[in-house]
Amino acid sequence: MGTTRENGSLYTRIDNKVATVEFGHPASNSFVAELLDRLTNELHKLSEKQDVSVIVLKSEGDRAFCGGASFDELMAITNLDEGKVFFSGFANVINAMRNCKKLIIGRVQGKTVGGGVGLAAACDYVFALEKAAVRLSELSIGIAPLVIAPAVERKIGKAALAELSLAPSEWKNAYWAKEKGLFAKVFSSLNELDKELEFFAQKLATYNPEALSEWKKVLWEGTENWGQLLSERAAISGTLVLSEFTKNALSKFKK
């Protein structure tokens, strides 16, 4: 059973140096601001923990991996400050994932949209199910995937980012995502995925933690300006969400 809590849920379990972080929300595991803050803080904490070498990021249930940003909270934004704060939620999580000293393995068991694609892209290695299709729907509701774009582009390149984002109502399947580099492995059964993921995570956790941490820095080279960049992008998104165009698009979408 998934969580019924309006602010979502976040649980961490540590086992043999592998920390499994599981988030959930009744609305297709989408993110309200409070849940994004909790995930950011949790990643900062785990980054410093001596008894953790690897982090597995997963979501509740067997349906959607992540529905992106909370629709209700998007609709409730009334001014620039609120807009910037809201979009900074994903900026903060992506920066926490980037700066985290531990390698992060994503477990993508189902469809993922918008900010959820950014979350998958900010993982260092992703195991996905065949049914884990991806979509960047932002343009269709009057905004753009500005905050998550650097993370997605880092994985799949600008051409694939354009292909994904300019067809906002089109799902790309898991094999497309694997071919572009967003997913590392794709499985046909959840059982098989979980078995392989556990084996992979346990194996990684036996390696020298300092070597893993130094190697992660190399994998993320060239992203040092993201602290500022993602914050600027959050401000632009906050402006877009207040436009008449977006307000109309959101209310139509909601219906």
What does this structure look like?
This protein has 255 residues and is an alpha/beta fold. It has a single domain (9-190), classed as Alpha-Beta Complex (2-enoyl-CoA Hydratase, Chain A, domain 1). Helices cover 49% and strands 15% of the residues. The chain is built from ten helices and eight strands. A six-stranded mixed beta sheet has the order 1-2-3-4-6-8, sandwiched between helices. It has a two-stranded parallel ribbon with strand order 5-7. Helix 1 links the parallel strand 2 and strand 3 (54-59). Helix 1 (33-48) packs parallel to helix 3 (80-99) and helix 4 crosses helix 5 (149-165). The chain starts with 8 loop residues before the first strand and ends with a helix. The mean pLDDT is 95.
Strand order of the largest sheet: 1-2-3-4-6-8
The assigned structural class equals alpha/beta
- Level-2 CATH architecture: Alpha-Beta Complex
Give average pLDDT, whole number.
Answer: 95
- Report the strand count: 8
Q: State the CATH superfamily name.
A: 2-enoyl-CoA Hydratase, Chain A, domain 1
- Runs in which pLDDT lies below 50 for 5 or more consecutive residues are none
How many domains make up the 3D coordinates?
Answer: 1
The N- to C-terminal Cα distance equals: 27 Å
Q: Quick one: overall form?
A: globular
Question: Quick summary of this structure?
Answer:
The chain has 255 residues and is an alpha/beta fold. The chain is built from 10 helices and 8 strands.
What descriptors fit this protein?
255 residues; alpha/beta; 2-enoyl-CoA Hydratase, Chain A, domain 1; six-stranded mixed β-sheet; two-stranded parallel ribbon; 10 helices; 49% helix
